[in-house]
């Protein structure tokens, strides 16, 4: 069997995964990952690759399956609609083809031109 060539890795996979976990838990940009986990580009590379090839989805599915088999997951979900907010424009949305509301206070939208104003406006 042929040995792989190239330079040996400077950071262990454990360090890289710990860096990914630290970054996710802290919620900071990739560039703020501490150097003890490796250079941020080195930590980001496998994270993105595993994201693209579905590794993270498989890990999550396996962990959920194991926890469910042990009875550690309660799959009941409760959604409180008082916390779900509509967009600010959704409350007063105009229906298509419906009449437009009058301006508040019944103020006319265009001024009425009378008498001598009519000659200068024309």
Automatic annotation (TrEMBL):
PANTHER family: BLL5188 PROTEIN, TIS1421-TRANSPOSASE PROTEIN A
Record field: compositional bias (Basic residues): 86-98
Sequence ranges assigned to domain Insertion element IS402-like in this UniProt record: 4-59
Name used for this protein in its record: Transposase
Taxonomic path: Bacteria, Bacillati, Actinomycetota, Actinomycetes, Kitasatosporales
Span list, region Disordered: 85-122
Domain of life of the native organism: Bacteria
Regions of compositional bias (Polar residues) in chain numbering: 111-122
């Amino acid at each position: 069997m042929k040995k792989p060539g190239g330079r040996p890795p400077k950071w262990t996979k454990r360090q890289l995964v710990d860096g990914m976990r630290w970054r996710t838990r802290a919620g900071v940009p990739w560039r703020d990952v501490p150097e003890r986990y490796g250079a941020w580009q080195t930590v980001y590379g496998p994270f993105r690759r595993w994201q693209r090839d579905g590794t993270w989805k498989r890990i999550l599915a396996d962990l959920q399956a194991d926890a469910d088999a042990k009875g550690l997951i309660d799959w009941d979900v409760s959604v409180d609609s008082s916390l779900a907010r509509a967009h600010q424009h959704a409350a007063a949305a105009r229906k298509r083809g419906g009449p437009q509301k009058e301006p508040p206070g019944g103020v006319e939208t265009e001024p009425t031109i009378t008498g001598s104003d009519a000659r200068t406006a024309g």
